[in-house]
Specification:
The chain is of the alpha+beta class. The chain contains three helices and seven strands, in the order αββββαβαββ. It has helices at 4-10, 60-82, 107-122, and strands at 28-31, 34-37, 43-44, 47-48, 88-99, 129-135, 144-152.
């Protein structure tokens, strides 16, 4: 597997962030060999790319694309915190929140966008456990929010 920073470029992906959260929150907390991101919305250049609720005004395909953007934003904040994605040993867990209408039950298909992206970048090290949760609303009207937890190697030096 090539180095992960290079793999992002090889796949033609763009890390759109980092988009730091408001004070006093951290975009990433690194502790005891783990790094966990704050929730990442589908933002490019600071603008939400997918708002609304699944099952009302957002399709599953649009939601999956938004989840992919969220995962790219998670990688952007991880890279900013760690200095390189190459310090990531393994993606451990993804939590996906999907703003959805009552009765909508395809949250896993939406969050698959993030899971597929992480697997594409990290290969088998990108396989992870996951929760896909439907909620009534997300911050700023976002349709999807993704959190990522990874195992990290110690910094050199």
């Amino acid at each position: 597997m090539p180095p992960f920073d290079a793999r992002v470029e090889e796949l033609g992906l763009t890390l759109h962030g980092p988009h730091p959260p408001h004070d006093p929150l951290e975009a990433v907390v690194v502790h005891g060999g783990l790094a966990r991101t704050s929730g990442q919305l589908p933002r490019i250049a600071g603008r939400l790319t997918c708002t609304g609720r699944l099952g009302e005004d957002v399709t599953v395909e649009e939601g999956a694309e938004a989840a992919e953007v969220c995962a790219l934003n998670a990688l952007a904040v991880l890279k900013a915190a760690l200095g390189t994605l190459d310090r990531i040993e393994r993606v451990l867990h993804v939590t996906g929140y999907v703003a959805c209408a009552p009765g909508f039950d395809a949250q896993p298909a939406v969050v698959d966008g993030a899971s597929r992206l992480l697997h594409a970048v990290f290969g088998d090290r990108g396989r992870h456990t996951r929760s896909a949760v439907g909620v009534a609303a997300l911050p700023r009207g976002g349709a999807v929010e993704i959190e990522v937890t990874v195992a990290v190697e110690a910094a050199a030096g």
